């Protein structure tokens, strides 16, 4: 069983913001694989289905970004997920340009508070992740204001393409081919 997590903030006011990139990619995976988010449990909306030929649970933590680990940790324990082989987390990355992806098998939180919390609750940083670029914040902008703002129109097409490619990469990772996903989609 695979656990696929999209990070974001719950509520309509956060729809379409940079920080909800993980939710946006999860929605694309759900659409592509005809899965519905059918319930709420353990601090997350969830759906079950097949992704990349594997049984999967897909979740959107409802704890707000910085406490995402609370939900992820509960799902990892409940479903007896092996993080190194059965967990994928998808989230926004200010260190990557809009439209670009960075896929890794493991790694630090890199300053992302949601990832810090997940690592703390899961007990390891050895799990797959797809970072979707949102670009660096402009000078004189507050970081929270930047990540909670929508994308400018001039990069929206690149962002939509990145969401599509991140969903394809997630399917490859669930199939067990993270190396192929890294080779095809990183950069």
Question: Can you characterise this structure?
Answer:
- This protein is of the alpha/beta class and about 190 residues long.
- It has a single domain, classed as Peptidyl-tRNA hydrolase (Rossmann fold).
- It has seven helices and seven strands.
- It has a seven-stranded mixed beta sheet with strand order 2-3-4-1-5-7-6, sandwiched between helices.
- A hairpin with a 2-residue loop joins strand 2 and strand 3.
- The longest helix has 20 residues.
- The chain is globular and about 45 Å long.
- The model has no long low-confidence stretch (mean pLDDT about 95).
Descriptors for this entry?
187 residues, alpha/beta, Rossmann fold
Helices and strands in order:
Elements: E1 2-6, H1 21-32, E2 39-41, E3 44-51, E4 54-61, H2 68-78, H3 83-86, E5 87-93, E6 101-104, H4 113-122, E7 128-133, H5 143-147, H6 156-175, H7 178-185
Parallel strand pairs: 1-4, 1-5, 5-7
Antiparallel strand pairs: 2-3, 3-4, 6-7
Helix pairs in contact: 1-6, 2-4, 6-7
Q: Radius of gyration over alpha carbons?
A: 15 Å
Strand order within the widest beta sheet: 2-3-4-1-5-7-6
CATH fold annotation: Rossmann fold
* Beta-strand residue fraction: 15-25%
> Helix count, per DSSP?
7
Count of the domains: 1
Low-confidence stretches: none
Number of distinct beta strands: 7
Please name the CATH architecture: 3-Layer(aba) Sandwich
Main β-sheet, in a few words?
7 strands, mixed
- How widely separated are the two ends? 29 Å
Estimated structural class: alpha/beta
* CATH class categorisation: Alpha Beta
* Shape category: globular
| Helix fraction bin | 25-40%
């Amino acid at each position: 069983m695979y656990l696929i997590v999209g990070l974001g903030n719950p509520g309509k006011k956060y729809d379409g913001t940079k920080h909800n990139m993980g939710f946006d990619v999860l929605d694309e995976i759900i659409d592509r694989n005809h899965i519905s988010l059918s319930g709420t449990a353990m601090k997350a909306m969830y759906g079950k289905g097949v992704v990349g030929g594997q049984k999967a649970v897909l979740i959107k933590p409802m704890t707000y970004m910085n406490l995402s680990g609370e939900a992820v940790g509960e799902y990892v324990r409940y479903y007896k997920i092996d993080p190194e082989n059965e967990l994928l987390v998808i989230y926004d990355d200010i260190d990557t340009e809009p439209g670009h992806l960075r896929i890794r098998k493991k790694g630090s939180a890199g300053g992302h508070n949601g990832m810090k919390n997940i690592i703390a609750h899961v007990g390891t940083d050895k799990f797959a992740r797809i970072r979707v670029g949102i670009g660096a914040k402009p000078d004189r902008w507050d970081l929270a204001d930047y990540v909670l703002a929508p994308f400018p129109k001039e990069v929206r097409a690149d962002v939509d393409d990145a969401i599509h490619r991140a969903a394809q990469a997630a399917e490859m990772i669930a199939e067990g081919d993270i190396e192929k996903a890294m080779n095809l989609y990183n950069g």
